[in-house]
Design goal:
By secondary structure, this protein is mainly alpha-helical. It is built from 3 helices and 2 strands, in the order E-E-H-H-H. The chain has helices at 20-33, 37-54, 59-69; strands at 3-5, 10-12. The two termini are 31 Å apart. This is CopG family transcriptional regulator.
Amino acid sequence: MANFHGKSRAYVAFQARLTPELKERLAKMSYEGGFSQVAIVNAALEYYLDHVETGSVSLEKDLESVSESLPGIPNPKKKNPGTDD
């Protein structure tokens, strides 16, 4: 992970694990719309975070559904068997 500090913005690079279906949709949208995949992901993330802040969408519900569809992502709501968690 790298941080790049510009004039008034800080840029953070990260990797995201996408389902094959989502990856295909992103590639198709990029090709058909003429926008870079980075621009699409940035716009989508900004839109989503704005709606989480206003309460229009539930981050917890979305995290639960994503954790079930992608292996290796822990579900924050599931308790570990044999523990007091």
